[in-house]
């Protein structure tokens, strides 16, 4: 995390009104940011937002293009020092988090990004995902059956959270007794991805980074002595010519797989069910033909209310968006939630429609370009398994009450989802 954004350009009255609606720390906005997105899109293609020192980019075509534009990057350190870029280095006391985060693929640019992604792809293969599918379906079925037998409860804590954590733990070879450690570590670390995180958030993230890194280093050491068929063993063995992953790169990769892999699945599960409950006609369609309709329905859930609302990029070379000159050293906030509701790209975008064909549903929820989510195929397997288990084995589920929302905006979702039969 860095500070001292470039001085903002003069704001025009047209910019002031829509950005006043963008209130990422307001619970009412977090619960429904979409009216503000409509206003931002109508008012222009790029808007300076003073509280975070960022340019907000709300249109689908711009977001999609900028995700692929090499004039922007997740980091600038491959080309500039902090001082050359006009930024302040992260505080030394944040170093455990900074190192852990900075060595992950998501926050690297080429050539380092391409090198690590090639090596990880040799371990985290489509075949591995395919082989995991029966385990995912079994785990989903067991969790759903338990919630159904109890007559209801919190779908988030009973199914949505434990499923992806169990799957990733299975992949990494984390013993069942240790799996309860993963979610709290992940939650503490991902708190730093919110806008303007507090020092208390940073302290929690640093502590979790230290503990999680130490745990993974011990697991890596154990796999070096006695390899298995898990992902850590595959990462140790991965090579590209004479190139291999360093221990820090393996640690950062495993943390990224947990954080990115389970946060998206947890929130898509709860948000997806919330919108099915709010749209009983769509739930009836899905329940009538789950196998046929699930692939399209999953993509529509990801589009309609994406769990990742905003993705940040640094401007490495001067760019222009809709007449706004955005200089090197700036930061853009790509509004995924707005892009996925852009009427220029989606017909009737405010309508939740599970019959919207997946082939034409070009949402940006998994990103695009070189940072496209490596775990997207696994997320789709998990979502299909979870929703399929409910529809097949526990039909007739009902929402007990509208949920409260977690305070986070960037990674957004309900605090709970209480259901019954």
In a nutshell, what does this entry contain?
This protein is an alpha+beta fold and 421 residues long. It is 51% helix and 8% strand. The protein has helices at residues 13-21, 27-31, 34-43, 60-68, 95-102, 112-123, 126-149, 155-160, 162-172, 182-190, 199-225, 231-237, 247-278, 280-288, 290-304, 336-339, 376-393, and strands at residues 47-49, 54-57, 72-73, 152-154, 310-315, 319-321, 324-326, 331-335, 398-399, 418-420.
List keywords for this structure.
8% strand, 17 helices, 10 strands, disordered N terminus, 421 residues, Cytochrome p450, globular, five-stranded mixed sheet, three-stranded antiparallel sheet, alpha+beta
Write up this protein.
The protein is α+β, with helices and mostly antiparallel strands and about 425 residues long. The chain has a single domain (about 15-420), classed as Cytochrome p450 (Orthogonal Bundle). The chain has 17 helices and 10 strands. A hairpin with a 2-residue loop joins strand 6 (about 320) and strand 7 (about 325). The chain is globular.
How is the topology of this model organized?
Elements: H1 13-21, H2 27-31, H3 34-43, E1 47-49, E2 54-57, H4 60-68, E3 72-73, H5 95-102, H6 112-123, H7 126-149, E4 152-154, H8 155-160, H9 162-172, H10 182-190, H11 199-225, H12 231-237, H13 247-278, H14 280-288, H15 290-304, E5 310-315, E6 319-321, E7 324-326, E8 331-335, H16 336-339, H17 376-393, E9 398-399, E10 418-420
Parallel strand pairs: 2-8
Antiparallel strand pairs: 1-2, 3-5, 4-10, 5-8, 6-7, 9-10
């Amino acid at each position: 995390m860095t500070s001292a954004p470039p001085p903002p350009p003069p704001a025009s009255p047209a910019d002031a009104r829509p950005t006043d609606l963008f209130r990422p720390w307001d619970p009412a906005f977090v619960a429904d940011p979409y009216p503000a997105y409509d206003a931002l899109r109508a008012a222009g293609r790029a808007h300076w937002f003073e509280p975070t020192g960022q340019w907000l980019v709300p249109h689908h075509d711009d977001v999609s293009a900028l995700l692929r534009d090499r004039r922007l990057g997740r980091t600038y350190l491959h080309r500039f020092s902090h001082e050359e870029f006009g930024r302040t280095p992260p505080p030394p006391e944040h170093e455990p988090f900074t190192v852990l985060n900075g060595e992950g693929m998501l926050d690297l640019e080429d050539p380092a990004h391409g090198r690590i992604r090639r090596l990880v792809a040799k371990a985290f293969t489509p075949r591995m995902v395919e082989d995991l599918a029966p385990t995912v379906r079994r785990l989903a079925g067991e969790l759903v059956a338990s919630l159904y037998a109890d007559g209801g409860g919190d779908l988030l804590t009973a199914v949505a959270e434990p499923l992806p954590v169990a799957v990733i733990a299975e992949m990494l070879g984390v013993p069942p007794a240790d799996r309860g450690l993963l979610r709290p570590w992940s939650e503490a670390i991902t708190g730093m991805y919110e806008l303007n995180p507090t020092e208390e958030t940073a302290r929690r993230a640093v502590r979790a980074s230290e503990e999680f890194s130490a745990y993974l280093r011990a697991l890596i050491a154990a796999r070096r002595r006695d390899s298995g068929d898990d992902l850590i063993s595959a990462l140790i063995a991965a090579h590209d010519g004479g190139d291999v992953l360093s221990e820090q790169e393996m640690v950062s990769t495993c943390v990224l797989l947990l954080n990115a892999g389970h946060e998206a699945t947890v929130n898509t599960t709860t948000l997806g069910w919330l919108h099915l409950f709010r749209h009983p006609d769509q739930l009836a369609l899905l329940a009538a033909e789950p196998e046929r309709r699930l692939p399209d329905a999953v993509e529509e859930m990801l589009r309609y209310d994406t769990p990742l609302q905003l993705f940040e990029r640094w401007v490495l070379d001067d760019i222009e968006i809709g007449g706004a000159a955005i200089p090197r050293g700036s930061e853009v906030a790509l509004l995924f939630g707005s892009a996925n509701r852009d009427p220029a790209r989606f017909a009737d975008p405010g309508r939740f429609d599970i019959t919207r064909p997946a082939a034409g549903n070009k949402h940006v929820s998994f990103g695009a370009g070189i940072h496209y989510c490596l775990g997207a195929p696994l997320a789709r397997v998990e979502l299909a398994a979870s929703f399929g288990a409910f529809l097949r084995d526990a039909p007739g589920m009902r929402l007990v009450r509208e949920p409260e929302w977690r305070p986070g905006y960037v990674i957004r979702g309900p605090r709970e989802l209480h259901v019954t039969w």
